């Protein structure tokens, strides 16, 4: 019911929205919750387990009941709290966890079976038969229970991640936070003020407390406006600080466009990482309920929330309202109701002897029950003289206030119990640099909140070397917070502690009885404090009941662990910017645009052509076989720019390379290239590649594509940590050069048709290198071969890469060749027994790949000593061999394992495994490379190959790994 | 004789203006890495200054001015952006002209755009004109420098130019859309 006047709303801006398909009207400034109350809706949800009707209970992000789903399809977002959803034109919300409707829910039958559904019911009941749990029980239970559902579709909304830095982060813009922000801002500090609400002011907007002789909301709005126009202040409303992390880092989620009907390109939410030198925690406090029989009936809500609805939203949650509490908050609510002309049916105070000057019926006692079909109709009050029944359609409850100290606990701090406020308070220094103030610090008067806010800001300013501004402290109310603890009212029936998870006092007692005495065990056994609200309403009550049931004090019992995020955070926001290809950059070669027909394969971040299909080819193997033929018979072109290239200079460059490679490079002649092998410090192979000597003190190292970054890092480590005295500098030039393999018997012919000056076998002999030019552009030419053919690699500055690739390809085609991709490259190198990271996968030694001869005995190098450890040169190790199929199955598969003939294909009999395979069009059959126990001594043996994953089995002959042109004449020719 | 055609890293992708911020490709005559060899730091800095008017930059700094700038790019290493350099005795020098996609981000809100891409503290009082950083920018290793009141230079690997433009323009789109709210 909308009140005729008042409220921080704009009545001139009506807003149409729908709830469960029915159309309603609210006004600008409403939340969905206040608009539903304005339209007289009481039951807005069904509970998690028993499907009991539930109503709006709070006016903030702690709401356990009023969860709704917005949107459809990919944009569907469940479990949104109606209490924080700002109303916008066309908002369409749906209730959850009910069928067919929230008012008539068939699964409410669960409620009748409630005696069976106590804590641990599922654990105890669905034990047998064991297989039924996954097949039958769990799916059925999951269908019946649960809150909102995801669409299962990829989220198409825009999200954003962002970083911010400041001197002082103020979390919460109530009186304490505003005061802290203003003090720091006036002193010239960089301030970020974040508040989860759309409107700054915190409880001032709900309680209308006077500050500085003016209504609280006016004072708050003025301060917020002041702050907003200062250059050194960033005011972030709709922003929830969700976690506190090391080094003053905080996570925060900003609802950027969730409150707008037409967001345009604006993100729905932004995930912020805020780094602050100091922080002030002014998050206020959350009011807690009292457990009594049927305290979950729609119409029963928090006393402070009732004030919020009356004062801020000008809606009345009832016509005849009872108020029940153990502290002065209840009296404040009764007063607010009277001020708004609403009938107060009863004021029930559990504290003995407390009086009121309000003209309301005052009961000294406790509410012990409620009645009503779809919403509250009457309450029962237990007093010294017996039980009395009072008619009321709304009950405002206050069991006291819990400081919102969650963030102080995010770095493993535990709060301390404070007897006078019957609440946990933060301890000093729980999060370094973060100072809790005001209600978050257990201080419950506005005057104290303002003073603490200013004081904390001043302390932060002093730490930062800034002079405090010492802004005057405004006058505000300074009453006492008088509370006598009351957690649960004794009596029969179910008294709810956790509304979101349907956990009752009895459940907690049962947990204790069944030896789940630790608060963490109780939580997991009963599910209390889980799900979206994380027990914001219920944790204190539940642990107090547990303490009582186990005969311990509340501080002895302790709290469960507070973890980030403070409020539910969408994965969309957390993953902002990292969806799909946003996860990692894409690297494209210069020839990418000239390789359009080629399916791409990802090699690290690079995209490389797999093969270049021609019209009429229906299967990749056809293309691959053809491309292999180009190289073996004519000439093939392949972009090899992705290989790492490192330019190394300095008078000690040779010595440096001698130390990182197993073989010698200081002896390499200028204008020559050599294959090198690099070990990790543990003696296993790290990488291989060719290194060219371009000048006396100038080398160019080539790494594999996969290990380019690792090798660069390794070189930096070796230089900085192991050999700092060497005068050497190095830098990656991978990106500077576009490099292409020109391979095949006609490779020189092709090059000479392009180069400004012809090359010959003398000027560029095998493993030679040097400068050339094409069309006046300087290039580098290396006569190296990864195919075993007469081959070159030519490198030009990357700007010319695409152009050169097109030329090379076109010329190759006129010579009966063309471009080849990764598949053909792989077949070519397997035919030659050349290794890649499929073989040097991190667990093999130089000995294993048959390259022990490359480990120089004349010098020390990284990994030398470790490679000589016992066992690393044991002949019985799995060592590199070639394989070809012998049985009727003519296929080998990579990843298959090897076994002796006649032995079971089980782990204990494992003889090795296959690392690379390919069909060799040159030789007409499959080839494989793999590792076999004592392999090189078993050449000619027949072995059994079993691929357990693909279900393929064959026999294979163990061969020398070099299948084709073992003398290497073709490359040297 | 054949003719090789040159393409810039961001060919066909830039310039883009979204809202008040513009992203433009910058092409330098040359980019040269300069790394003084042992004990040659001062001499190299002196020669560099004589050649192009800017000394060897300190860590996290740039020297010089537009089209003749040196930017610190790592331990004992700077990238000289602008004129092609003559050999400097005592320095390891490497041609990097084609290795980098270089762009300028300029306009009101440029800093807000960067705040969506890099975790660096870019407050004007912290990241001043003449400051530079090797940093992570949208998962990419980048060189970032502030070259004007609201102008920043960004260098990323040439092969990542498409991702660079995509991610920066996405951030520009969000920033522009926010100002319209």
TrEMBL record, chain A:
<dbReference type="InterPro" id="IPR041854">
    <property type="entry name" value="BFD-like_2Fe2S-bd_dom_sf"/>
</dbReference>
<dbReference type="InterPro" id="IPR027266">
    <property type="entry name" value="TrmE/GcvT-like"/>
</dbReference>
<dbReference type="InterPro" id="IPR041117">
    <property type="entry name" value="SoxA_A3"/>
</dbReference>
<dbReference type="InterPro" id="IPR013977">
    <property type="entry name" value="GcvT_C"/>
</dbReference>
<dbReference type="Pfam" id="PF01571">
    <property type="entry name" value="GCV_T"/>
</dbReference>
<dbReference type="InterPro" id="IPR028896">
    <property type="entry name" value="GcvT/YgfZ/DmdA"/>
</dbReference>
<feature type="domain" description="SoxA A3">
    <location>
        <begin position="493"/>
        <end position="577"/>
    </location>
</feature>
<dbReference type="Pfam" id="PF08669">
    <property type="entry name" value="GCV_T_C"/>
</dbReference>
<dbReference type="GO" id="GO:0008115">
    <property type="term" value="F:sarcosine oxidase activity"/>
</dbReference>
<comment type="similarity">
    <text>Belongs to the GcvT family.</text>
</comment>
<dbReference type="Pfam" id="PF17806">
    <property type="entry name" value="SO_alpha_A3"/>
</dbReference>
<dbReference type="InterPro" id="IPR006277">
    <property type="entry name" value="Sarcosine_oxidase_asu"/>
</dbReference>
<dbReference type="InterPro" id="IPR006222">
    <property type="entry name" value="GCVT_N"/>
</dbReference>
<dbReference type="InterPro" id="IPR042204">
    <property type="entry name" value="2Fe-2S-bd_N"/>
</dbReference>
<dbReference type="GO" id="GO:0046653">
    <property type="term" value="P:tetrahydrofolate metabolic process"/>
</dbReference>
<dbReference type="Pfam" id="PF07992">
    <property type="entry name" value="Pyr_redox_2"/>
</dbReference>
<dbReference type="Pfam" id="PF13510">
    <property type="entry name" value="Fer2_4"/>
</dbReference>
<dbReference type="InterPro" id="IPR036188">
    <property type="entry name" value="FAD/NAD-bd_sf"/>
</dbReference>
<feature type="domain" description="Aminomethyltransferase C-terminal">
    <location>
        <begin position="879"/>
        <end position="965"/>
    </location>
</feature>
<protein>
    <submittedName>
        <fullName>Sarcosine oxidase subunit alpha family protein</fullName>
    </submittedName>
</protein>
<keyword id="KW-0560">Oxidoreductase</keyword>
<feature type="domain" description="GCVT N-terminal">
    <location>
        <begin position="594"/>
        <end position="859"/>
    </location>
</feature>
UniProtKB/TrEMBL annotation, chain B:
<protein>
    <submittedName>
        <fullName>Sarcosine oxidase subunit gamma</fullName>
    </submittedName>
</protein>
<dbReference type="InterPro" id="IPR027266">
    <property type="entry name" value="TrmE/GcvT-like"/>
</dbReference>
<dbReference type="InterPro" id="IPR006222">
    <property type="entry name" value="GCVT_N"/>
</dbReference>
<feature type="domain" description="GCVT N-terminal">
    <location>
        <begin position="88"/>
        <end position="171"/>
    </location>
</feature>
<dbReference type="Pfam" id="PF01571">
    <property type="entry name" value="GCV_T"/>
</dbReference>
